[in-house]
Amino acid sequence: MSRRKNRILLSILLSLLILSSASPLLADFIVVLIGTDPSGDAHPASLDILEVYIANNGTHFKFILKCRGTPAPSLFKVYIVWMDTKGGPFPDYCLVADGISGLYEIKVVDGTVIIRYKAPIVVTVEDKRIHLMARLSDIEYPNGVKEIVGVVATTHQFASKGKKTPSGPPFRNEKLPKGSEDIPKIPHFKIKDRAPDAGRYTVAREVIPELPGITPLIFIPSVIIAIYIIYKKKFQAEGK
Question: What span, in angstroms and rounded, lies between the C-alpha atoms of 65 and 226?
Answer without folding.
Answer: 41
